[in-house]
């Protein structure tokens, strides 16, 4: 066994990182370190929303802060008038473009617009 027939090296960035729990997966997805197809962007946006209302300064949407991702996405779409056309049966209908709102909300974090957002708050609490 000292001389295996093949050696496999993990080149950083080629394989998906190994994770132990959902919390780690969400943090990696927020930082765009895993493929977006490996997670549901709606859940990632909801994870970012949990307990952090610093987005209110940057989105400028009415209604104040909310911890409900569905309400937030509806407010973003209605304020920005983001709509999409969907084929429903035999005709097209206009609906709110929630996918665009989700992407825009996640991009606030990825582009450092939300400056005071820390993903490892539980680790910092140990030292405070």
Automatic annotation (TrEMBL):
Keyword Lipid biosynthesis found: no
Any one cellular-component term (Gene Ontology): mitochondrion
GO biological process, one term: mitochondrial translation
This protein's UniProt keywords: GTP-binding, Nucleotide-binding
Any GO molecular function: GTPase activity
Keyword field contains Nucleotide-binding: yes
PANTHER family tied to this protein: MITOCHONDRIAL RIBOSOME-ASSOCIATED GTPASE 1
Highest classification ranks of the organism: Eukaryota, Metazoa, Ecdysozoa, Nematoda, Chromadorea
Superkingdom of origin organism: Eukaryota
Full protein name: G domain-containing protein
